[in-house]
Amino acid sequence: MKTSNVLTDYIEFPGKLPVKHKILYMLLESQDKFLSWNDIGDKAGISGPGVRGNIKNLLDDGFPVETTTERGCRISGKQDILFPSRIHEHLETQVLGRKILYTLSTTSTNDDARLVANGHPGGTLLTCETQTQGKGRLGRQWESPRGGIFLSLILKPEIQPAKVPSLSLVAGYATAKTLQSLGLDALVKWPNDVLVHGRKLAGILCEISAEPDRVAHVIVGIGVNANVSKTRMPGPVRERSTSILDELGKYVDRNVLIAGLLNNFEAYYFRFLESGMQTLIPEIQEIMAYVGSPVIIHNTAFGSVETQHGILRGLDKHGRLLVLASTGEIKTYTAGDVSLRLE
Ligand code: BT5
User: Fold this and answer.
1) In a domain? residue 272
2) Residue 329: helix, strand or coil by DSSP?
3) What's the structural domain count of the chain?
4) Which alpha helices (H) appear in 103-159, and where do they start and end?
5) Which of 93, 100, 216, 335 qualifies as a cystine partner to 209, CB 3.0-4.6 A?
């Protein structure tokens, strides 16, 4: 099913599955067993040529379908694929992920989410297997090989636009806590990264659409290097990144992980909406990277790059970064145009 305005081929959950996905899930569920051409056609409600056309499409999408004239088709071995219905099974949320838009490949789920935000309720999740133009902050690129998690949430919070930058930190905190529940030593690097052993494992990109005093929507994009080795990243990214697979040496169920992330995020998001950042700050600070360490800040908020050296002190009650400069002055930074690194 195509959703309005989105150019790529998203399926909507809950909703009717397109035939190609019906056949894919049939093959995955039958595990290593062959399904005859007739059985596939009967169950999917299509004729022989239709089955062949859809199997060809699945092969073009990169699924390892084995086809034989006599025995039919199968996909053998365990496949690392997202199932919206499995994400849904593990959700404990009231709002986040109650509606899921899923596609195999797209340019950027954040861009797609922005396109469809007006036509979908707050909490809608967009996710995919790979992105061809994954985005980071400040025009940077997000490497999005298969096996990673790429998701965007459409949020419609009734808050002042000035409070929105804090959401990036809330999402980063939820991501770090979710990774900690897998046994990883995950830390939040202000404002939008999650580090494990000093390397980046996840990143957050929040994009806002607002009028002066009203938020229309916020797109919270989260990328997690899950079942993908950093050896598949280009050189400069490889050196500074890591993944769940690299850290734990095993694959995780990305469906369960996405659901767990949404469950955590919703709990923190609701607390943020009800009581602001203050209540979350002490716990975020507990798992914040670089506190007490010398850091360098690059601030591009005023057009040119302003560089500041200092000691990272932590966060103020709004989630802004506090840095002690050598002059003894405490400098305050708001997420958005600021990059932070260890000196
Ligand atoms: C981020 O930007 O960390 C935000 C990443 C957000 C990605 C999600 S995926 C779903 C949604 N759709 C999108 O198009 N985006 C969001 P930033 O702090 O600017 O970090 C970007 C920098 O991280 C790059 O310049 C690289 O140095 C590095 N990098 C790129 N890909 C990486 C990866 N997969 N893992 C670790 N580091 C990466």
Assistant:
1) yes
2) coil
3) 3
4) 109-116
5) 216
Ligand 1 pocket, residue 54 CB under 6 Å: no
CATH of the domain at 38: 1.10.10.10
The pLDDT tens digits along the chain (343 residues) read 444 445 558 999 999 888 999 999 999 989 889 999 999 999 999 998 999 999 999 998 888 999 999 999 999 888 899 999 999 999 999 999 999 999 999 999 999 999 999 999 999 999 999 999 999 998 899 999 999 999 999 999 999 999 998 999 999 999 999 999 999 999 999 989 999 999 999 999 999 999 889 999 999 999 999 999 999 999 999 999 999 999 999 999 999 999 999 999 999 999 999 999 999 999 999 999 999 999 999 988 777 888 999 999 999 998 999 999 999 999 999 877 788 999 9
Please tell me whether residues 172 and 304 are part of one structural domain.
no
Tell me if 142 sits within 8 A of 161, measured CB to CB.
no
Amino acid letter, residue 21: H
For residue 47, report the distance from its CA to the centre of ligand 1, in Å: 44
Task: Tell whether 334 and 206 lie within a shared domain.
Answer: no
For residues 254 and 285, what is the distance between their CA atoms, to the nearest angstrom? 27
Find the 56 Cα to ligand 1 centroid distance in Å: 33
**Residue 279 and residue 302 in one domain:** no
In a domain, 9, yes or no: no
Kindly state whether residue 2 falls inside one of the protein's structural domains: no
- The token duo for 321 is 């970064």
In terms of residue numbers, what domain contains 137? 84-286
Same domain (yes/no): 51, 182: no
Q: Would the CB of 21 count as within 6 Å of ligand 1?
A: no
Residue of minimum CA distance from atom 30 in ligand 1: 142
- What distance in angstroms lies between residue 39's CA and the mean position of ligand 1's atoms? 43
Amino acid at 130: T
Q: Please report, for residues 12, 192, 237, the alpha-carbon distance to residue 217 in angstroms, rounded to integers and kept in the order given.
A: 20, 19, 31
